[in-house]
Amino acid sequence: QVQLVESGGGLVQPGGSLTLSCLASGSNLGFYDMSWYRQAPGKQRELVAGITYGGRENYADSVKGRFTASRDDAKKTLYLQMNNLKPEDTAVYYCNAKLKWPPRDYWGQGTQVTVSS
Residues 98-110: pLDDT tens digits? Predict the structure, then answer.
C-alpha cells in the first residue's frame, strides 16, 4: 500500500515558477513508475509528466521545455519543477504511482495550481 501526498501548489503569476512535491509513504518506490497528471475544470485528467523507475522521462507536448519531473527514491519523493507558467496550466495536479506487477495504481488527493495575474 502506498499513500501519496502532494504539496507546493498555489497562486502564481504568468511566467512564474512553482515546484510541486509528492511524498510517498508505505512501500518502497523503487519499482514504481511515477507520474504527474492534471485536471482543469470541465476537462479530462491528462498526463503532464512521467518518470519511470529506470529514470526515463516523458512529457506532454504542452509542457515540454517548461516542466521537469524528478524523483528521489531515498526520500520517497517525486517533484515537478514548473517554469514559465501559463494560465492554461491552471488545474489540480495529481501524483500517481504505478506498479506493473503485481498491478498497483495509487493517487494522491491533488494540489491546486492557479496561474493568474
Answer: 998 899 999 999 9
